[in-house]
């Protein structure tokens, strides 16, 4: 059983929505990052290799951007697979949050930005229902990450 606020039905429909975008995890992960870097250029400052890239085209071609996009999507995929097991879910989210808070010193607002862009992309590609069924998941992820940040003294 779960301490999450998602019902079994919500977990199932969230997984269905995620599946659609995860099938092309590298391209979609890249698209999400490129949109973030373009719309929120300050986020590029965390990534030394992306700093000098100004054009979306250049970013899209970058192995580093593609690699990180894939990494982000695979981390979310792990979380999505464990939405019905809060212990396993926290086992993924906690180290990720700690690393971003303490080692990488990433502002936690960036998690919300990434989640919102994923939701936008879902809506553009697969419609509003797809987005709606994944929205609660992004809220769970961001809430847990923010809690970890608080514990780390942010």
From TrEMBL:
Superkingdom of source: Eukaryota
Sorted UniProt keywords: Heme, Iron, Metal-binding, Oxygen transport, Transport
Catalytic activities: 2 superoxide + 2 H(+) = H2O2 + O2; Fe(II)-heme b-[protein] + nitric oxide + O2 = Fe(III)-heme b-[protein] + nitrate; H2O2 + AH2 = A + 2 H2O; Fe(III)-heme b-[protein] + nitric oxide + H2O = Fe(II)-heme b-[protein] + nitrite + 2 H(+)
EC number(s) on file: 1.15.1.1
SUPFAM superfamilies for this protein: Globin-like (SSF46458)
Similarity-based family: Belongs to the globin family.
Annotated protein name in UniProt: superoxide dismutase
Protein species of origin: Vidua chalybeata (Village indigobird)
Phylogenetic placement of the source organism: Eukaryota, Metazoa, Chordata, Craniata, Vertebrata
Gene: Cygb1
């Amino acid at each position: 059983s779960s301490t999450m606020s998602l019902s079994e039905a919500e977990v199932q429909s969230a997984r269905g929505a995620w599946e659609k975008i995860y099938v092309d995890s590298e391209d979609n992960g890249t698209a999400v990052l490129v949109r973030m870097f373009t719309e929120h250029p300050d986020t590029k400052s965390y990534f030394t290799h992306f700093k000098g890239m100004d054009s979306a085209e250049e970013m899209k071609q970058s192995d580093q951007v593609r690699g990180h996009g894939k990494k982000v999507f695979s981390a979310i995929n792990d979380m999505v697979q464990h939405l019905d097991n809060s212990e396993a879910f926290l086992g993924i989210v906690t180290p990720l949050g700690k690393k971003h808070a303490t080692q990488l010193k990433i502002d936690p607002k960036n998690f919300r930005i990434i989640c919102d862009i994923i939701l936008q992309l879902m809506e553009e590609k697969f419609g509003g229902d797809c987005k709606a069924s994944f929205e609660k998941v992004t809220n769970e992820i961001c809430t847990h990450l923010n809690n970890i940040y608080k514990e780390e003294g942010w």
